[in-house]
Amino acid sequence: MSDLTSKPTTLTLPAIDARLVVTVLVAGAFATIAFDFFGQFLSPLLKDLASPWLGAKLAPVPLANAVIGTVFGVPAKAVGDLGIGYGLHILTGLIFYPLGYILVARPLSGLLPFVPWWVTGAAYGVALWIFALYFMAHLIAGNPPFLGWGSLTWVALWGHIVFGVVVAGVVQWREFRN
Predict the structure, then answer these.
(1) Could you write out the three-class secondary structure of the chain?
(2) Rounded to the nearest 10 degrees, how much is the dihedral formed by the CA atoms of 67, 69, 75, 81?
(3) Which residue stretches of the chain have pLDDT < 50?
(4) Where exactly are the structural domains of the chain?
(5) What's the pLDDT tens digit per position in 29-38?
(6) Which of 44, 79, 161, 176 is deepest in the core (most CB within 10 A)?
(7) pTM (2 decimals)?
């Protein structure tokens, strides 16, 4: 097993090398696709079966536009017209969130070696959900906490859990490929 993906038993960080970059990009690509597929297609498709837990269509790009607009003091529409929110959504899913899993969540879970990779991934997804819906959507963009606890809240929770489990799964898979 490589230093990059083997589950540490202490707080150690992986070596920053080409393998780390590839793992981040592959995990981020698959997880972002899974998140968007779930949030844009599956959730609305399953509305009649699982409302209010499913049914809403995730809207990460408008949220990113609102956050950027608030931070820089420009209208969210202007940010959206430039595609900046979409770019932030892709960069976050492709690079920043997978890095968070590899550099923070996975090493922390190594302190509890009995925790399976998928539990770490799901817990990381919940942490991402809290970050996105409380810190970014509420504290920065000014929306109600957790977007008012409507169906979008729960779809976002499941979407972020899907994201976290896919990132964890890809990292686990790359571990056994080595």
Answers:
(1) CCCCCCCCCCCCCCCCCHHHHHHHHHHHHHHHHHHHHHHHHHHHHCHHHHCCCCCCCCCHHHHHHHHHHHHHCCCHHHHHHCCHHHHHHHHHHHHHHHHHHHHHHHHHHCCCCCCCHHHHHHHHHHHHHHHHHHHHHHHHCCCCHHHHHCHHHHHHHHHHHHHHHHHHHHHHHHHHHC
(2) -90
(3) 1-3, 5
(4) 45-177
(5) 999 999 999 9
(6) 79
(7) 0.89
